[in-house]
Amino acid sequence: MQMQVQFAFPMLQDKMLLVRIEAARILAPIPVGDLPAELALAAELEPGDASFVYVYAVGLNSLGESQQAIRTLQDALVLHPRNREILTALVSFLRDSGDAEAAGRYAEELRALQP
Q1: Helix and strand totals (H; E) in the chain
Q2: Which of 11, 51, 101, 114 lies 20 to 30 Å from 4 when distance is taken between CA atoms?
Q3: pLDDT tens, position by position, 9-53
Q4: How many domains does the chain fold into?
């Protein structure tokens, strides 16, 4: 039996990652249509790929889970300290949550990366 898997994000088309996600889904089923869970799993399976964590955090923020999105990005920054997408999202999410001081600190880190 051949199973077709489609994701809303093209970056999830990597075949090995799809195999790993499907294996994890069989072992611990994820509700169909639960994209944040799929993105969380992708971020967990590929911690070296900052784009998975970024997209997951943006999804969390879009669902109103801004504090969890901020924590996710802060954790990811440990592995990806020079990632502009992560820093930009942190500045935006923190500013929107009213934490101008923390947003300013991350904005300074982001400015330091500019050539």
Answers
A1: 6, 0
A2: 51
A3: 444 455 555 556 555 555 554 443 566 677 888 888 888 889 888
A4: 1
